[in-house]
C-alpha cells in the first residue's frame, strides 16, 4: 500500500520528469545513434530537420530531474552523484559535443563527416551513460553513515554495461519510430527496417536486465516472485509482450504514428518495472524516499513552484510540437 504523503508525491514528480526526459530527448538521441545507418546527404539532412525545432528544449526535463532530486531528496543526491561522477561527466560532455555538432554540421560543410561522427558519438555516449547510471543505482551503492563509501569504479560492472546497452537500443527504437512518423519515401522505408532491428534488441536487453535483476538483491526477487506481489508485478511483462506484438504488427503494416506511441509505452512499462523493483527506496537497500527527503516545509515551498512552472513548460512544449507538426521535407536547417 502506497502512502501518498508529500514525499511520495515528490517521488512521483521526479519519476515524471525522468520519463518526460526519456520521451522528449530519447528520440533525438536515438536519431544520433542511428546516424551511421542513415543515408549520407539528403537522408541525414531530413533526419536532422525532423528534430531541429524541438531538440534543444527537450533537455529541460533533464535539468528538472536532476534539480528536483537535489531539492527534494538532497541526501540521495549526495550519495548518487559521487557514486556516478564519471558517468555524469561523460554524459554531459556527450550532450555538449552533440549540441555543437548539431549546429556546426550545417555551417561547416567541409568537415560535415566529422560533425556527423561527433553527433553520433555524443548521442551514443550520453545514452550509454544514462543507462549505466540507472544500472549503478539498481545494483546498489555502498553507503556508510550518510555518505558514499565505494570506489571511483564501482559503477563499472557487467550489469551496468547491460543496462547502458538497453537504453541505447531503446533510444534507437524511439528515434527510428519518430522518423517513421515524420519522414516519407526511401528514408522512411530505411528507418522502418531499422526500427524492427532496434525493437528486437530492446526487447532482448529488457529481458536480460529483468532476469539479471533477480540475482542482484533478495528484495528484488521478493518483489517480483513473492506472493501476493507476483500477481501485480506479472502484469508488467505481460503488457510488454502485448505492446511488442502490436509494435511489430504496426511496423509490418506501415503504420506511422502508432509505432512511436507503442515504443513510448514500452518505455513506460520499463519505468514501471524499475518502480516495482526499487520502491520505496531511492538508493536500494540503503535509503528510502523518506530517509532522503528534505523538510516538509521545503517540500511545500517547492511544490508551489512546481504547480506554477510545470503547466508553463508543458504548455510551451505542446505548442512547439503543434507548430512543427506534420511531415518534414527539405535539405537545409530551418
Task: Fill in the keyword field for this structure.
334 residues; mainly alpha; Formate dehydrogenase/DMSO reductase fold; two-stranded antiparallel ribbon; 15 helices; 4 strands; globular
Account of the protein in words:
With 334 residues, this protein is mostly helical. It has a single domain, classed as Up-down Bundle (Formate dehydrogenase/DMSO reductase fold), CATH 1.20.1630. Helices cover 76% and strands 3% of the residues. The chain has a two-stranded antiparallel sheet. A two-stranded antiparallel ribbon has the order 3-4. Helix 1 runs antiparallel to helix 4 (60-72). The protein is globular and about 55 Å long.
Please outline what is shown here.
The chain is 76% helix and 3% strand.
Domains (count): 1
Instruction: Encode the helix/strand succession as letters.
Output: HHHHHHHEEHHHHHHEEHH
**What radius of gyration results from the CA coordinates?**
20 Å
Instruction: Please state the oligomeric state of the protein chains shown.
Output: single chain
What structural class results from the helix and strand content? Answer: mainly alpha
The CATH architecture comes to Up-down Bundle
Q: What is the tally of beta strands?
A: 4
CATH topology, by name, is Formate dehydrogenase/DMSO reductase fold
Low-confidence stretches: none
Q: What is the helical fraction, as a range of percent?
A: over 70%
Strand order of the largest sheet: 1-2
Query: What's the story with the biggest beta sheet?
Result: 2 strands, antiparallel
Distinct helical segment count: 15
End-to-end Cα distance: 51 Å
